[in-house]
Amino acid sequence: MARIECRGFSLSSVYDDRTVLAIPPVRLATLSDARAIAELSRDSIELGLGWSYPPSRIQKAIRSRTTNVAVVHESGCLLGFGIMDYGDTAAHLVLLGVQPHQRRRGLGRHVLSWLEQCALTAGLERISIEARADNPGAIGFYQRQGYRVRGRVPGYYRGVLDAVLLEKKLGMAGAGGAG
């Protein structure tokens, strides 16, 4: 039995080969989600780099007319989130994070797919992402979702860590995996 503590809530689950795990729905974040999103970013995505996305910056993204901040919650706990900026022809995935103890459930894929569908509905041509070069798990995840490596930026993260640039073409061009 796994027991997970989350701000006064206790989630207990028994996992075996008969358990079907339901994926909670994705919804737009509210200002009350900002602190939990910022803390997950700091503790999992920005680990070792300082805090670039404090609650105030997340709140600004939530208020933005050109940004979607999507979240997945369960029993009052933030399980995962994604932040995507939308431009005239392309979108940029700013952050995507899932609680470490909730990974491998399909939550990241679920949030990413929701954000991609928004970009596709808006008629955008592609989505770009930067991933930490020291995170092959994230790079592999994006590749499995149809993103292709487009390059590398030395010192992208605070001058100390490289970024791997990835891109996915949307619409008919993206459907066939062309890139």
From TrEMBL:
Q: Which Pfam families match?
A: Acetyltransf_1
Q: Which InterPro entries match?
A: Acyl_CoA_acyltransferase, Bact_Acetyltransf, GNAT_dom
Under PROSITE patterns, the record lists: GNAT (PS51186)
Q: Which Gene3D superfamilies match?
A: 3.40.630.30
- Using the record's annotation, list all stretches that form the N-acetyltransferase domain: 24-171
The answer to whether keyword Acyltransferase applies is: yes
What keywords were assigned to this record?
Acyltransferase, Transferase
Q: What is this protein called?
A: GNAT family N-acetyltransferase
Q: Which organism is it from?
A: Lysobacter niastensis
